[in-house]
Specification:
The chain is of the alpha/beta class. 43% of the residues lie in helices and 16% in strands. It contains twelve helices and twelve strands. The strands form two sheets. A six-stranded parallel sheet has the order 2-1-3-4-5-11, sandwiched between helices. It has a six-stranded mixed sheet with strand order 7-6-8-9-10-12, with helices on both faces. Helix 4 links the parallel strand 1 and strand 2. Helix 1 crosses helix 3 and helix 7 runs parallel beside helix 8. It is globular, with a radius of gyration of 24 Å.
Length: 344
């Protein structure tokens, strides 16, 4: 036991006496110190004493798309941690091809008496989907928050990145490097984030390169899937149209674009620059490290939880969209356009 106390004390940065007081539920320990000791227990893999275990304030559902794209687990982790700190028990429900649908997962969560639900990139982002499902859910008295994708037909709080600004950041960066033939690779047209990225991309190309908006959307925008293979296919089409730079709507697509460039015997960024979107975990360690638009995942996840718990507590948040600004992270996958480099 002494060895355990020493380990926990060292991890928490407190004395063994303080650890003992916390474990025995004695008063006289600051809340922040008590939390540090409990966190040390968790990190070291020790089981909390029964008296120190939290009683759940209720269940909260989190419905996400597949978890193969690293940005979804990253967002889920932020949400889960924030809910746990507030005493709620998160229930992660993931959609998979051929598996449970969003409606089925919603029904399962409602049947289990969840206090509320957070939807990430769900049907609310699909402009062809029936939004009546959300009004029916509200009629059942279940609070919910919608992340990534806005619909004016749904009276609910929305949490979104500024996709228009994201596209503009990428275009501005590439234009500063001398690129004039820039392509945009993204998902199906029907999704709100896709439409917004296109709007930002077209406007930036018009303002910075004096290009005709109709020609930009016709020649420089390529729809595909948010996968490695989707990025490969989209990049191939854009390279065939003479693009020296490709902006991708996800980091997974960007890795596919890099693969396509190399399969053609070209170099990234020597011949073609590639920009991703999300700044997924580990993306800084790819070859080359990926220039990307960092999605404000932590701020968005925290806002989603805060907004939902406000609704759960009887203080409804405004039924409007909270928009978070992305950030350009420049790494090794972008460089000057080949045509603008001085010859040796």
């Amino acid at each position: 036991m002494t060895a355990r106390l020493a380990d926990i004390a060292a991890q928490a940065g407190v004395s063994e006496a303080t650890v003992s007081r916390v474990l025995n539920g004695k008063p006289g320990v600051a809340a922040a110190t008590r939390q540090s000791v409990l966190a040390a227990l968790d990190v070291l893999g020790y089981e909390r004493p029964v008296r120190l275990r939290r009683h759940s304030a209720g269940l909260v559902g989190l419905i996400t798309p597949e978890l193969e794209n690293p940005i979804f687990p990253a967002l889920a982790q932020v949400v889960v941690q924030a809910l746990t700190r507030q005493g709620y028990t998160p229930v992660l429900a993931t959609q998979t091809p051929g598996g449970s649908t969003e409606d089925e997962l919603t029904e399962m969560l409602v049947d289990r008496g969840v206090s509320g639900i957070i939807y990430v990139s769900g049907l609310h982002a699909d402009t062809t989907a029936d939004t009546g499902r959300y009004e029916r859910l509200r009629g059942q008295g279940v609070p919910f928050v919608l992340v990534d994708g806005f619909s004016p037909a749904v009276a609910a709080p929305f949490i979104s990145p500024d996709d228009r600004a994201a596209a503009r950041l990428a275009v501005t960066h590439l234009v500063s490097l001398g690129h004039t033939r820039i392509g945009l690779a993204l998902g199906p047209q029907r999704f709100v984030p896709v439409q917004r990225k296109i709007e930002g991309f077209v406007r930036a190309a018009q303002e910075l390169l004096a290009l005709d908006p109709r020609e930009v959307e016709r020649d420089l925008v390529q729809h595909s899937l948010y996968t490695l293979e989707g990025g490969q296919a989209a990049a191939a089409a854009l390279l065939d149209r003479g693009c020296t730079a490709v902006i991708c709507a996800s980091d997974m697509m960007a890795l596919g674009a890099v693969r396509t460039v190399r399969e053609r015997g070209l170099d990234v960024p020597g011949d073609v620059s590639v920009v991703g979107f999300d700044d997924s975990p580990l993306i800084a360690f790819t070859d080359p490290p990926l220039t990307t638009i960092r999605k404000p995942v932590h701020a968005m996840g925290q806002a989603a939880v805060h907004t939902l718990l406000e609704e759960v507590g009887g203080t409804p948040a405004p039924h409007s969209e909270f928009v978070f600004m992305p950030e350009l992270v420049v790494r090794g996958s972008t460089a000057s356009s080949p045509g603008t480099r001085p010859r040796p």
